[in-house]
Structures are given as C-alpha cells and as structure tokens.
Write a structure and sequence with these properties.
single chain, alpha+beta, BirA Bifunctional Protein, domain 2, Rossmann fold, 2 domains, eight-stranded mixed beta sheet, five-stranded mixed beta sheet, 38% helix
C-alpha cells in the first residue's frame, strides 16, 4: 500500500469543518477591513523566493522544495505567501491602480522541516498584505485585523510581542554593532550563524541552536540604534495600538524569519502549543516590491498557520461551531417508497435543506443506524402505508418524538418548522 508522505496530513470529514470554520472567519474579518482575496500559483520560479525571502534564511537554505521542470527551469513549491502576492502585485499592474491595495490569501505552503505539533511540510496560511502606505496607521490596522481575527476564533490567551528592526538607514550601524559583539564568539557559533555573520548578522538573533541562543541573549538591542524616523514610526504604532485597546509586550529580540522585514515586526504568541508558540506573525517590508523589480512601494502584512491555529483551539477547548450534519435522512422500506424518498430528497435539497437517503438497499433498521452515525437530526420513514396516505413519519433523533408530515408539506416543514 502507498502511504502518505512524512510531514503531510489527510484531512478527514471529521476535521475538515474545522478548517472551513477558520477560513470562514479569516475571510469575514478581511472583508470587514476592506481586504480582497487573491490566489497565486502553488509553485513559482525559484528566483522569486531567493530574492524575496532572502538567501540567508533557513527557508531558502534548508527548507524549500525545489526541482527542475521539463524545460530545465528551477521551480519551487511556495514556502510562504507574501513573495507570490508581491509578484502578483507587480506583474498585474496593481501598483499602478488605486492605492492602497489591501489583499488577503488562504493558501497551501511547503517547507521541508522536522514535523512537530502544528508544523507540517505541507500546511496552510491565512495572510494579508497592505501595499502602498508608509504610514504607521497601516501597521496598526494590520495588527488590529490580526487581533480581531484571533478574538473572532475565540483565542484570547495570546500575547502580542512587538519590536522595530529599523530600516536601510539605521540597520547598517546596528549590523556592525552585532558583528563587534559576535566576533569574539565565532568559534562557539553554529555553521549557519558563522555564514550569517557577514551576510546578515541580524539573522543570528533568530537562531534556535542552544549555544547561539545563549550568546545572542546579551547582544546589543536594535531599539538603541533606530534612526529618528524609525523611532517616531514605532512610537506612533504603539500609541495607535494603545488607543485601540490592544495590549502588547515590547520584545527587542523579535526579528522574524524572513529577510524582507523592516521597521515594525510583531508576533502573537501562545504557550498552549509547545515551545514553538508563534501562531501569527508579520511586519513591515518597504523594500520588497522594489527588490523584486517593481516601483518602490511600502507594505505591511502578516501570516498565520491554519493548522497551528486549529491545534491551539483544540488544546484550549475552543469550539469550532456545530459540525455540519444532515438535517433529514429519508428512509424507504421498499422499492416504491425508496423512489419516493429519492424524489423528496431532491426537492428538499433544491430548497436548501441538507438531506440524504439510502443508496445501499439497507434494511430500515440499518438505515436508522447509518443515519445516527452521520448525525442526521431527523429520520423520515416512508413505507407502503405512508405512500398510500401521502405522508412520512418524521422522528426527531434527539428527543425521539415522532409526527406525521404530508409529502406536500415536507419542504415547508424542514425549511420553516424545525
């Protein structure tokens, strides 16, 4: 038997409604904030992620699913959503349309990493991208959207961590300070950090190796090196969040995992899904569009892993709404009554009622048993007597109460009366 690849997961009917619930909440909150959906290809040219995500990131260096297609082009399954949406923004001329462009997506993504709780090699992201505004109120709006989304899901026990990582004007000075700090410890650092030392020392702060993490704990803080513009921007973001009633913790160690970030970065963190507790993260990336060949365009956004959100909700007992179930199962006792059940089932479905009937030629007892397993709220029985007198016997599967309902009134009964 061929089995599922490691790091992937089948979504069964008993789980799929949870995904639908989270995705519906995502689309609804995005619409409230006037964000519109976009969809990008599952794979892109590898160059997009090398240029956009950054060649010093773990994603590009270790985690991408990259292959040559039949035309010998290097193709990569997308490891995250932002680079593809940025490419869409440029290629389709949205940068020349009315700005800001407020876009959201729900997409599969792929990373080759060690599978763990809520983290798979194929996973799904909900993300938003706000293109065109350099104002700190765009940062605040995106964070407010994220906060509302989590609250709409019923997730309250999370902490917003906030930081600024500066811009192209103040970051070089900070990078030199980091090199001065890490230089005496180079022999103790992992190979990845030694590579990042010259290319992008800021990434060294995000290393998960124990010794590297210990050394980085006493590194200089970026907030001590921010230029006046970045300081003012960050102060305004904090002020807007306070005015909106969103609490946060300043965390100078947040740098995020992608190279394109600048200025504001943030994470919503929970302890309910283990050590890897970030359930949603994002920030500002004012140079990405230009770096990918577009006109200089400021931007800010976030992404959330849907599987991790579902795991968090399950671990903390947050409900996903009612699991979808058939409203009525129509059980026929003989060939003639089965045909009537089939016709009534079709009429109920056209009226918007979730209905089902037997397709296995089961006995009446077996049909009731099957209806119970599928969670049907009612079972309507039709036999020769019911056919003769033009009614069905409807049983409430919760209360066990029964009543006769005429065939003519069946649609009204299930659309209005229950």
């Amino acid at each position: 038997m061929v089995t599922i690849p490691k790091g992937t997961k089948d979504v069964l009917p008993s789980d799929s409604y949870r995904f639908q619930y989270v995705e519906q909440k995502a689309g609804a909150v995005a619409a409230r904030y006037a964000f519109r959906e976009v969809r990008t290809p599952t794979f892109e040219h590898t160059e997009l992620f090398c240029r956009g995500v950054g060649d010093t990131t773990d994603i590009v260096n270790k985690e991408m699913y990259t292959f040559l297609d039949k035309g010998d082009r290097s193709i990569t399954l997308k490891p995250e959503g932002t680079a593809g949406v940025a490419r869409l923004f440029i290629e389709n001329g949205l940068q020349n349309s009315a700005l800001p462009a407020k876009l959201y997506y729900i997409t599969p993504a792929f990373r080759y990493e060690r599978p763990q709780a809520g983290r798979l090699r194929e996973f799904h992201q909900f993300g938003v991208e706000f293109f065109g505004s350099a104002s700190p109120d765009a940062d605040a709006e995106v964070i407010l959207l994220a906060d509302d989304f989590l609250k709409d899901l019923g997730i309250e026990d999370v902490e917003l961590n906030l930081n600024s990582i500066g811009c192209k004007h103040c970051r070089p000075k900070y990078n030199e300070a980091l090199r001065d700090y890490f230089r005496p410890h180079l022999g103790e650092l992992c190979e990845t950090c030694r590579t990042r030392f010259e290319k992008n020392p800021l990434r060294m702060l995000d290393c998960k190796e124990t010794r590297c993490h210990e050394i980085a704990a006493n590194a200089p803080l970026i907030t001590d090196y921010l230029c006046e513009e970045c300081k003012e921007h960050f102060e305004t973001v904090k002020e807007l969040l306070r005015e909106a009633g969103v609490s946060f913790r300043l965390n100078p160690n947040i740098v995020r995992g992608l190279d394109y970030y600048s200025k504001t970065v943030f994470e919503f963190v929970s302890t309910a899904i283990g050590a890897q507790g970030t359930v949603l993260g994002g920030g500002r990336y004012d140079t990405l569009i230009e770096h990918l060949g577009g006109n200089p365009t400021p931007a800010v956004g976030f992404a959330a892993g849907i599987e991790r959100l579902i795991l968090l909700m399950q671990n903390t007992g947050i409900p996903f709404g009612e699991e979808p179930a058939v409203t009525v199962y129509l059980a026929g006792m003989d060939e003639a009554s089965r045909k009537k059940a089939f016709a009534l089932c079709a009429a109920l479905r056209k009226a918007g009622v979730a209905a089902d009937t037997d397709h296995m030629n089961r006995s009446l007892k077996a049909q009731f048993k099957y209806a119970g397993k599928t969670g049907a709220k009612f079972v309507a029985t039709i036999g020769s007597n019911e056919l003769e007198h033009g009614f069905m016997t409807v049983k409430n599967m919760t209360s066990s109460a029964s009543e006769n309902v005429s065939f003519e009134n069946a649609v009204d009964y299930f659309t209005k009366g229950v």
